[in-house]
Amino acid sequence: MGAQPSIGCIDDVRHGWVQGWAREGGRDGPARLLARHPGAAPVEVLADGYRPDLAAAGLGEGRHAFRFRLDTPGFDPARLELRFADGTPVRPSAACLAAWQESHAAPAPADLEALLESPVTRVLHWEMTRQCNLRCTYCAVSQPNYRGEDMDLGDFDALVATLRARRVQTLVVNGHGETTGIPGWHHRILALAAAGFRLAIISNFARLLREEELDAMARIASIQVSVDTHRPEVLRAVRRRVDLGNILLNMNGVRARAEALGLPQPVFAWSCVMSDKVALDFADYLRFGIAAGVRAFDVCNLSRYPDLPGVEMPEHATTLPDAELLRFADVLREGRALAARKGVTLTIQAGLLDTLRLELARRGLPAEVAA
Ligand code: SF4
Prior knowledge:
Blueprint: E1 7-14, E2 17-23, E3 31-37, E4 40-47, E5 49-50, H1 52-56, E6 63-69, E7 81-84, H2 94-103, H3 109-115, E8 123-125, H4 156-165, E9 170-172, H5 185-194, E10 198-203, H6 211-217, E11 222-226, H7 232-239, H8 244-260, E12 267-273, H9 282-291, E13 296-300, H10 322-342, E14 345-348, H11 350-363
Parallel strand pairs: 8-9, 9-10, 10-11, 11-12, 12-13, 13-14
Antiparallel strand pairs: 1-2, 2-6, 3-4, 3-7, 5-6
Helix pairs in contact: 5-6, 6-8, 9-10
Bound molecules: iron/sulfur cluster (SF4).
């Protein structure tokens, strides 16, 4: 018998709680999922709760329910991405969406006041655009049904005044899209820096930034650049239209402008979406990044979207054959030791490590996975 598909459903989203069920590949064990929503940190979800209706429906022993909190301003279940480790999505039911839309049709003024009850917001993610100049093969942006849009920044000054009044300390100036793609983006950054916010950004650094853009970028304290591998040809295959040379030139350009302007040096981090294409080179990638002055590395679990025409899609690292999977476990441990020795931060998403542990156990392969 072939493997059964992973299935599930989000059936309630109220008061910041998301509830539903998910069953992975017809198995009775707990299912692990990852939830993402613009403006919110990703949430790892475990579906292992008992629900009698699931048992009655013949879904094993009925232990597939999940419930997690995702309380973010602008929450919209239609923008919530919940996926199994292999990328299979779990979507809200029509009844769930209809109930949510009804309850949010016209919030009463009193409800809006309640939303703003806390007078302080320490960290705020400001998604000025959902558009991107790249089409990375593993990204939702590359899917044919993705619709990106820019935020209307007509009220920019009023928004800045509100954020100041709420004493926002750190402003992360991107969400899903590429902020440097917004015409005149650097003027916005200069205004936010002048208003006294500590700024952070994730950017792809794919195109060479002009001098005035470098001046703005130099005012951002924490800059995370999306770089999956130090091998230019692999990077181009996975992220398309990306040149590692541009990334390094931009990084150095920002540092040089910070120096010239008498600003503190921004801290650079790299983020890597782990896949079969880059897994075995990971320790060398860290060495290369450290040599380029990168102080922190974030490793994310791959969400597998449907195939794109003419593209060799990156697969989850756990699809590697046995010998390479064992080598990958070694490489992660080597990376951990290297990061500790060099005093850089290495954050590996727990979902990736858990999936690797499960896969090694499933194949009966003896390997220790880096904590
Ligand atoms: S740069 Fe980021 S947002 Fe743009 S396509 Fe690549 S992964 Fe997606």
